[in-house]
Amino acid sequence: MATKKNNTLKLKFESARSYAPAPESRSAATINERYELFINGKFDKPQGKKYFDSINPATEEKLSSIAEAGAADVDRAVKAARNAYDTTWKKMPGKERGKYIFRIARMMQERARELAVVETLDGGKPIRESRDFDVPTAANHFFYYAGWADKLEYAFPAKKPQSLGVAGQIVPWNFPLLMAAWKIAPALATGNTVVLKPAENTSLTALRLAEIIQEADLPPGVVNIITGAGATGAALVNHPDVNKIAFTGSTEVGKIIARSIAGTNKKATLELGGKAANIIFDDAPLDQAVEGVVNGIFFNQGHVCCAGSRLYVQESVYKEVLRKLKDRLETLIVGDPMDKNTDIGAINSKEQLNNINKYLKIGQQEGAEMYQSSVPIPAKGFYCRPTIFTNVAQSSRISQEEIFGPVLTIQTFRTEDEVIEKANNSPYGLSAGVWTDKGSKIFNLTTKLRAGVVWANTYNQFDPASPFGGYKESGYGREGGLHGLAPYLNLS
Amino acid sequence: MSPTIVVNLALTHLIMPQKIISAQPDFSISPRVDQVGIIERAARFTKRSIKNETKLNGLLLTLNMIDLTTLEGKDSEGKVKQLCYKAIHLHDTYQGLPTVAAVCVYPSMVKTAKHALGNSGVKVASVSTAFPSGQSSREVKLRDTKFAIDQGADEIDMVISRGRFLQGEYNFIYDEIATIKEACGDARLKVILETGELGTFDKVRKASDIAMHAGADFIKTSTGKISPAATMPVTLVMLEAIRDYYYKTGRMVGMKPAGGISKSKLALHYLVMLNETLGEDWMNNQWFRFGASSLANDVLMQIMKAKTGIYQGKDYFAID
Amino acid sequence: MATAAKKNSVKPLARQDENGIPPKRLEVLKTYKIYIGGKFPRTESGRYYKAINKDGGVLANLCLSSRKDFRDAVIASRTAFGDWSTRAAFNRGQVLYRIAEMLESRKAQFIHELILQDIPASAAETEVLLSIDRLIYYAGWCDKFQQIFSTVNPVASSHFNFSVPEPTGVVSIIAPEENSLLGLVSAMSAAIAGGNTCIILASYSKPLCAVSLAEVLNSSDVPGGVVNVLTGKASDLIPYFADHMDVNAIVICDRGADVTRLVQEKAAINLKRVTIYDQINWLSDDGQSPYFIMDLQEVKTTWHPIENIGGSAPGY
Predict the structure, then answer these.
(1) Per-residue confidence (pLDDT) for residue A404, from 0 to 100
(2) In chain C, which residues have their Cβ closer than 8 Å to the Cβ of A251?
(3) What's the whole-model pTM score?
(4) Out of A289, B154, B252, C136, which residue is the most buried by the measure of CB atoms under 10 Å away?
(5) Is residue A384 among the annotated active site residues?
(6) Straight-line distance from the first to the last Cα atom of chain B, in angstroms, rounded to the nearest whole number
(7) Alpha-carbon torsion A285, A288, A294, A296, what sign?
């Protein structure tokens, strides 16, 4: 039997990208022309009467006008939250609080399709992900924390947990609804009231959530949702009557927040950037590893703080992994986020696309080899082909800095020690991935990797019961699970 | 490269017998498969939404990939003739439908099938090697195969000796397949792994590798007599094995999931999986088959629905 | 006794009696040095200050540590972290217990030093005994707190998922001015019981026990670099304790609002975890708990697929 080696072999995947369009119906949700601030249980105009546009990044069309909350509006929201805390929420028995949260979870499930459509129109993520991941996981988060509301004393042995007061929460644009759920659910379960600010690019699902909260008859002021950009966020962080700051976003802004609350008694949870190592050993289940790499970096256009953006492959399987990865890239469909077959949707904003493109240039200038799939991309809207860089050095900027896009760097390694050292050689420490068939090696790696979440033989899995959060400059505090309760409580 | 290397060291052959080292790969080590990962990946293909012309093309292609099968003790000439007529005339009220790819029968029915199919282009596939258990001697399996070939079979669907495989006798399996392949002559050989008896995805991968290296033209999941039969994850493991083998050797190998695929929606999921794992070159009945007995009618109903916009009823489609 | 006379009689720097006559045997004085990487260097700055009791008596010359001493201590701490953090928790417990044994055997010296630093005799004894007991307390926690604060998380997918605390890394500790031994021992024990390594700035006004404790550590199986002790001026050193990029966390005890604010601002540069212990009554049971250990821990969550074949599994 002849075994002829042929390096020119190539599988053809043109037809894998030319399925007939399968668009989700836009009519599943109506979007208002204008959205107001949700303060004290009512939708209310901003005092400054200013509005900003929210656009669909897939088409660059305007979706709606969103109220911009000024300092006075922030103050109104915090006062409403304080008042609700003092008069109702603090005194309410845990089991009653829990029932409200359960109710929110159920109503989100009822309106799941509508929420998914809005999320995709507003943020550009594929409808498949909004529908199968963002929205159900968000609802599950409320469901999970609802059950904690009357069981807090079991979580902290020998301590008496007490709520903090008013929580100021700021969420990013990559998972707008899910991050809002991550913030609001534990805050309510622990007896705090909330002022939440979504990212200015993606306010719509948070405002839908405000509608649900209103429908759920949550006492006015327990949750307030105010929209706006950085200035609104800063006013919230610096408001003297806020007891707790929970922020998910960039490390840069995280540091600003940490500085601005210095000397106050505000507690903070910061979920910040990452540059996760995803490590493939030669004994790994390679096809699943490649799939994990794809999920790790191309999920949500790579707009994921825990994205596995640094791939380390053991040299003996490097060629094979690279070949598999390139083939897999060819089958990723980039385009209309509303199409149910789209794998990679629109980059969230023009600004972010520019930032990604900047790094593509830097990578090439640094001498790395860039490979992009041959998938066609739409002419209008913000899109980026899935991209991998090979011939990358540890000291390259593209392997050190968070790109927050569908861009993967690949480096090789020879030994376990070497890869542990390289993986940890980063100011970040949010997540990491390990692929090997050997149990003892997994535990060596998972113990030594300095990261808050380690996925072994899997990647980018999330669950309300599972704590999430980083080491080092990836921030502090945990969200999710039992450990996600502590940041919202005083223990005495 | 020659298949065997004769080691003949001047010093050692005096004290040990001349040793023949086969150049076949070491099958004790084969690529690992993570069960949860492969299931997740297989499930992902089912999320593709196949609509309009893509759906219609997929349905027509599915029909054309079917190995219309009857493998029962009570199979008779009459039954086989009817099946063969159906293979050529799937639904004559709709013009322009393709035929199925092949009719799959026991060796004793090959002659009948061959005659009934005439020059329609539909192939006759015969199971062999003491199908379905494979529990017989190499000699009997060889004669079984030769009989089917003599009767006119275009394709042979053999089973591997699962007991020997699970005992770790990988070379036995390799030799078994290579021997049958030799007996097949021009007939194409499909090797049935009977994945439902192998127990893990790792073993499925290993058996796939052995079969391909031993000369299989197709690898096939199941006899249809054991549950579970074909599943998407098992088929995906085999498709990935085919892909790796192709890159290693340049030789294309076909895939045939068999058993348990009776709905057109599921068949379309399989085609998506094939399309995105092996690509366009495999998207024809030269390289992919569905082993199925009742899939055709469900596909026909879907095609009629697509054509007329009206949901169909079973009574309007002949059962065989 | 006249105040002036008492001032002159304060040991250990007194060389003559009241009448100016040398003692029959000249006492050997102890040089109070700093403790870095398991060694007792003098400060690289060559500067010193005098520890003085409330009557103005000079107790000793202490190193006025510099930022370079701190830098060296961080390097030693980082080097020691790998080994210390991955040691068996049981072994860390034994090492902490050993510190307690050593301290017990030298308790008279520590009581004496506290008395020299104006602590009444009975309070001095209480503080030393409590310090020993605190070490025992945390020795016992070393291999237990993980069990209390770990979780196995019942995720909905086919994965095994668990969360365990892990040491945050290199910790800088500003020990309290008062309870110069007990406060320091409490903060240190919680840090190292959890697998961290640390650099401690001792009480400026009552530094003697800190240096003597370093000698205890040095003779009790604590690997060099796990605990480093500096003496000196808080205002000189705190900025560096707070903004060094290779320090993962900082603990500040009773330093007032301004210093706390400064530390928090500077710590933001690399998002150090800042723990503030204000008005903790180290003498009471409120001064000890596994939650002090958890203040310097990170929670790591690990996922792994669970193969699911057989039974009612749909998977194969």
Answers:
(1) 97
(2) 271
(3) 0.94
(4) A289
(5) no
(6) 49
(7) negative
Residues near A354 by Cβ (< 8 Å), separated by ≥ 6?
none
Residue in C51, C136, C39, C121 with CA at minimum distance from that of residue C79: C39
Is A305 a known active-site residue?
Answer: yes
pLDDT tens digits, B27-65:
878 899 999 999 999 999 999 999 999 999 999 999 999
ipTM, two decimals: 0.96
Under the phi-then-psi rule, with left for phi > 0, alpha for psi from -120 to 50, and beta for the rest, what region is A361?
alpha
Was domain A27-272+474-491 assigned CATH 3.40.605.10? yes
Task: Indicate the residue of C148, C155, C273 with minimum beta-carbon distance to A476.
Answer: C273
Domain positions in chain A are 27-272+474-491, 277-463
Of residues C306, C300, C71, the one with CA closest to residue C163: C300
Is residue B209 within 8 Å of B241, Cβ to Cβ? yes
pLDDT of residue B26: 82
Per-position DSSP letters for C227-261, written without gaps between them: EEEE-S-HHHHHHHHHH-TT--EEEEES-HHHHHH
In chain A, which residues have pLDDT < 70?
1-7
More confident residue, B24 or B241: B241
Do residues A57 and A381 make contact, with C-beta atoms less than 8 angstroms apart?
Answer: yes
For domain A277-463, give its CATH number from 3.30.360.10, 3.40.109.10, 3.40.50.300, 3.40.309.10. Answer: 3.40.309.10
**Mean pLDDT to the nearest integer, B154-171:** 97
The verdict on a CB contact (< 8 Å) between C270 and A456 is no
Inter-chain touch C305–B34, beta carbons under 8 Å = yes
pLDDT at position B30: 85
Of the candidates A114, A143, A76, A72, which has an alpha carbon nearest to the alpha carbon of residue A211? A114
Strand intervals (E) in A22-112: 34-35, 37-39, 42-44, 51-56, 61-67
Domains A27-272+474-491 and A277-463 share a fold: no
Confidence band, pLDDT 50/70/90 cuts, at residue B5: very low
H helices present in A271-349, as ranges: 286-298, 318-330
What is the set of domains in chain B, with CATH numbers?
27-316 (3.20.20.70)
Domain boundaries, chain C: 31-305
Of A2, A15, A21, the CB nearest to B283: A15
Interface partners of chain C (CB pairs < 8 Å, 3 or more) are A, B
Q: How far, in Å, CA of B12 to CA of C260, rounded?
A: 81
Q: Which two tokens stand for residue C39?
A: 């060694």
Q: Does residue B12 surpass a pLDDT of 60? A: no
Q: At what angle do helices B232-249 and B35-45 cross, to 10 degrees?
A: 100
Interface of C with A (CB under 8 A): 86, 148, 151, 153-157, 159, 161, 163, 168-169, 248, 257-258, 260-265, 267-271, 273, 289, 291, 298-305
What pLDDT, on the 0 to 100 scale, is given for residue C13? 52
Query: Which pLDDT value is given to residue C217?
Result: 98
Of the residues B157, B209, B217, B298, which is catalytic?
Answer: B157
Q: Are A274 and A251 in contact (CB under 8 A)?
A: no
Q: Does A132 touch chain B (CB under 8 A)?
A: yes
Q: Nearest C-alpha of chain A: how many angstroms from C175?
A: 19
Q: Which residues of chain C have pLDDT under 70?
A: 1-17, 309-316
Nearest beta carbon to residue C307 from set B36, B196, B234: B36
CA distance C299 to chain A (A): 6
Q: Which CATH architecture has domain C31-305?
A: 3-Layer(aba) Sandwich (3.40)
Of A427, A452, A473, the CB nearest to C300: A452
Q: What is the mean pLDDT of chain C?
A: 93
**Residue B157 annotated to the active site:** yes
Say what the pLDDT of residue B28 is.
Answer: 77
Burial class (CB in 10 A: 0-12, 13-18, 19+), A152: buried
